[in-house]
Amino acid sequence: MQPVTLCVNGEIVELVVDPLRSLLQTLRDDLGLTGTKEGCGTGYCGACTVIVGAHAVNACLYLTVDADRKDIITIEGLADEDGTLHPVQQAFAEHTALQCGFCTPGMILSAAAFLAENPAPDESEIRNALAGNLCRCTGYQSIVRAVFDASKRLRDAGRTEARVGRQAPIRARA
Amino acid sequence: MRYFEPNFLDEALVLLDRFGDGARVLAGATRLGPQLRERTAGVDTLVNIKRIRELHEIRLDRGMLNVGALVTAQQLSDDELVRTHAPLIGAAAMTMGARQLRSVATIGGNVCSGDAAADLSVALLASDALCAISSIRRGPVETPVERILQAGPSGLPSGDLLVALRIPLRPAAIAYQKMTTRRGFEMALVSVAVSLIFEAVEVRHAHIALGGAAPTPVRATGAESALVGRTFSRESAAAAALIAANADATPSDDHRASALYRRHLVEVLALRALLDAGRAHGDAAA
After folding, report:
1. Cβ of A68: how many Cβ atoms within 10 Å?
2. How do residues A82-139 score in pLDDT, each as one tens digit?
3. CA pair distance B186, A72, nearest whole angstrom
4. Across-strand partners of B210?
5. CA A55 to CA A57: how far, in whole Å?
6. What pLDDT is attached to residue A171?
7. Res. B286 pLDDT band, cuts 50 70 90
8. Please, what's the largest Cα pairwise distance for chain A?
């Protein structure tokens, strides 16, 4: 077992974990942050995407020990403290860029990380950036439109990073 | 399960030597993590090498580009030194899986995975790269990447650590082509990496590597000899691609593609890659 210190959605969490425990298991089962979904569990579907440091990663493949002393943003930490949605979330809602919603947290975090890096993407860049996130409902059109719209909102608001807002309720467990 | 995060290379080597066959090295762990979660038989020690700073570095060293084993596919796609001095590696890295994977998967892990179509391995093979390997018993040694890849998954003897990939600087025209069933999704069915050195219109050196065309990434030596010393043309490229498919490739049927289809892909992709490289040379010469 290995002690780790994570900064999840702006809150410091200290845990002792099995060295092979995935970040997905830690987030969902140890911290109760079930907004991060488990789809395939093998890195293909992107449903478990979270942001570690500045990068979108598959939490199912990412070792918790590798997240030690790093900033992690899950879907629970994307909106502002007062509940104001992040521009990417707002755009997904307004463009109905979801149906069942299972892929949505991963899709939104992939998009948020991507827009922090490329604030003015074209459609093909958006499609390329989301290639690792599968959606079985929407056919992707509305998702691409939402991300494009979100890029404009972020630029207009002068926000160019995926920032953490509301902090999720987390209890450390030994 | 014992778990270590050594800070220095020597510390890691001592651990790998001490725990021998039962030890596994964790790099990006995108392959090994899920495998070990399923089955840990025979493994009692994990050595996570992430803290060793030199393994993350890309630098020019003694006439070669030295890429630390923990450099990720994303770093390779973005890095200026790689773009300038090892464009074939950068081109292959850019095609690798989705963004989420590229940020985590490492060049060292790619080589050690032993996958027949591992993108970076195929590009390294066509670049004549060397593996800088270290161990307590033998000290630092350099081995052609071809030898490590031929040995298959975890082809390194226990106690050895892949420290860096060393890529010779060559004024080559390069190209990388691959076929997947879904972009950003999975391993290439077949991939072809090409590195040609021209003298005017004549090919002086040809390095062609095939992924997914044999049990491990392989050089297409027949196709290479057909090109060297001759004037490059669409016809000579087509003839070489045919040799690559019929003589150099030794694919087998699996659940993803038939051997027949893989041979067909080798011919088509080799021709595309050779023509791309030919064009790159033409553009550079013009």
Report:
1. 18
2. 889 999 999 999 999 999 999 999 999 999 999 999 999 999 999 999 999 999 999 9
3. 26
4. B192, B218
5. 6
6. 37
7. low
8. 47
Answer left, alpha or beta for residue A140, where phi above 0 means left and psi between -120 and 50 means alpha: left
- Name the A residues in 120-159 with CB < 8 Å from any B CB: 128-129, 131-133
Q: Using an 8 Å Cβ cutoff, are B100 and A49 in contact?
A: yes
Is the pLDDT score of B226 beyond 90? yes
Nearest to B98 among A22, A42, A46 (CB): A46
Give me the sign of the Cα torsion angle B106, A51, B34, A140. negative
Q: Is the pLDDT of residue B63 over 60?
A: yes
State the helix-helix crossing angle for A87-94 and A141-156, rounded to 10 degrees.
140
Using pLDDT thresholds of 50, 70 and 90, give the confidence band for residue B35: confident
Residue A63: enclosing H or E segment and its boundaries?
A: none
Sorted by where each starts, the structural domains of chain A and their CATH numbers stand as 2-77 (3.10.20.30), 87-156 (1.10.150.120)
Spatial distance between the Cα atoms of A73 and A64, rounded to a whole number of angstroms: 14
User: Chain A partners of B99 at a C-beta cutoff of 8 Å?
Assistant: 55-56, 110, 113-114, 129, 131-132
Alpha carbon A124 to its chain's center: 21
Q: What mean pLDDT do residues B129-157 have?
A: 92
**HEC readout, B267-285:** HHHHHHHHHHHHHHHHHHH
User: Residues with Cβ < 8 Å from B19, sequence gap 6 or more?
Assistant: B2, B44, B45, B47
The angle that helices B119-126 and B87-94 make with each other, rounded to 10 degrees, is 160
| Whether A10 contacts chain B with CB within 8 A | no
SS3 for A19-40 is CCCEHHHHHHHHCCCCCCCCCC
What is chain B's mean pLDDT, rounded?
93
